[in-house]
User: Which sequence fits this backbone?
């Protein structure tokens, strides 16, 4: 194409006389509109992959996507409480247990357990360290229990056990699966399944059946102590070990001693099985908690406020035919035809309100014509609104709404209040309060109790969302 082309005189005159035809009517507008749709689709695809995605419907799986910062939290349990520790771990806190944690994005975890008993289930991965008074528990993937006992309460029960006055807390670590290291000062000891370590003035290891007189020789050998050592006494619960050791020593080798040994082995096996069942139950509880979008406890609302997280449920946005109550799902509630028709009207009204809020915010943010977007999916419009809103503004709104929920402030979505807000805040206030608004409207038709039962039947109104952009950056 770099060659010079010679034209004849006739060809040159024909070329000069030729006129470029006009483009078809609307051609430029169609090209630009197609390019705009392609850009929106590209941004939408990218937005759904970003950690700051707002409208992430969780369906069967809950996701909380952050900016890549560590997950930080703390909890003091008033009742048995399950807590998910990132993607790798679950902790079951017994009443009185106090736990704080920092979970990095790569799964590495640092925890501080200052009191009480906590069961842990940890999947293999990076470092997972539990700091306790006077030591550490280090794991890679395992099931274990850590109990921190206040020595002010336990010292009298231990009687003559050799525990120095400087020891303020006694830590007992029991391993059910995997391998654990316990460290105190410069001493590090490894624990296998079925073993228990006591961190007092030193680390003492014993079988999980508390190393009583029968069958305690292996643990005594590992500790470098005799079968009547005080370390074995410290591993037993509340002052019972000393008397049982004496009974065990008295009957060691006898038929009664054999029966006691058998019973203690059975007891250890049952404790291990019980621990596994409790961890499985805790994991199921944690999954259910992660899916919940309403009726959340105050402790969970407070944690959500700390990480600027929102959860909500809505009906699906429907263009064309409005949503209706599935008749087969309504059968258990024995509703009349009139009630079903009235509920359908409530669903249609809420659907229209959500779509209108999305379209209005889109028009204000982009300047596009409202008539031109009537056939565009509401989810795509919402993505465009978020793309065009600065990230710090989104974080600010999430923080504000999360704090209001934790403080019990009812969302104000009256027209006068909404008119004062930015498009994104107005939109988020309308959408994130949709579940409560629809349940209240349904309650006017079938009563509050039935309305809640209908919402509970699916764990929310079809689409459940859990999301955060992270909290606003602190001013320098």
Assistant:
């Amino acid at each position: 194409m770099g060659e010079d082309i010679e034209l004849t005189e006739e060809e040159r005159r024909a070329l000069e006389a030729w006129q470029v035809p006009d483009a078809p009517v609307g051609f430029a507008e169609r090209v630009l509109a197609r390019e705009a749709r392609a850009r929106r689709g590209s941004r939408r695809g990218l937005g759904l992959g970003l950690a700051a995605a707002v409208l992430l419907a969780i369906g069967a799986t809950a996701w909380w996507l952050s900016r890549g910062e560590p997950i930080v939290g703390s909890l003091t349990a008033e009742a048995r409480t399950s807590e998910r520790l990132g993607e790798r771990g679950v902790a079951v806190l017994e009443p009185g247990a106090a736990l704080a944690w920092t979970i990095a994005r790569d799964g590495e975890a640092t925890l501080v357990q200052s009191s009480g008993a906590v069961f842990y289930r940890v999947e293999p991965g990076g470092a997972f360290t539990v700091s306790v008074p006077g030591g550490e528990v280090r794991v890679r993937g395992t099931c274990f229990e850590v109990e921190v006992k206040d020595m002010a309460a336990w010292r009298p029960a231990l009687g003559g056990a050799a525990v120095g006055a400087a020891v303020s807390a006694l830590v007992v670590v029991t391993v059910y699966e995997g391998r654990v290291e316990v460290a105190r000062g410069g001493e590090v000891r490894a624990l296998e399944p079925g073993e228990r370590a006591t961190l007092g003035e030193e680390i003492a290891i014993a079988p999980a059946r508390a190393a009583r007189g029968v069958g305690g020789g292996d643990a005594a050998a590992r500790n470098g102590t005799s079968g009547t050592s005080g370390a074995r006494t410290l591993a037993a619960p509340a002052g019972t070990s000393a008397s049982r050791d004496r009974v065990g020593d008295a009957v060691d080798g006898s038929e009664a001693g054999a029966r006691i040994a058998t019973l203690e082995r059975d007891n250890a096996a049952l404790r291990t099985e019980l621990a596994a069942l409790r961890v499985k139950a805790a994991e199921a509880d944690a999954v259910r908690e992660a899916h919940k979008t309403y009726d959340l406890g105050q402790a969970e609302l407070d944690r959500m406020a700390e990480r600027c997280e929102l959860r909500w449920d809505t009906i699906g946005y429907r263009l064309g035919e409005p949503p209706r109550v599935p008749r087969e799902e309504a059968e258990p509630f024995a509703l009349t035809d009139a009630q079903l028709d009235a509920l359908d009207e409530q669903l249609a009204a809420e659907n229209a309100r959500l779509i209108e809020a999305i379209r209005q915010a889109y028009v204000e943010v982009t300047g596009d014509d409202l008539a031109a977007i009537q056939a565009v999916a509401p989810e795509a419009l919402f993505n465009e609104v978020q793309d065009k809103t600065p990230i710090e503004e989104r974080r600010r709104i999430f923080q504000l709404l999360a704090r209001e929920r934790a403080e019990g402030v009812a969302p104000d979505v009256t027209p006068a209040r909404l008119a004062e807000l930015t498009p994104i805040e107005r939109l988020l206030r309308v959408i994130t309060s949709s579940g409560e608004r629809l349940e209240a409207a349904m309650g006017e038709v079938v009563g509050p109790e039935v309305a809640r039962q209908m919402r509970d039947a699916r764990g929310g109104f079809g689409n459940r969302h859990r999301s955060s952009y992270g909290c606003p950056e602190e001013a320098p």
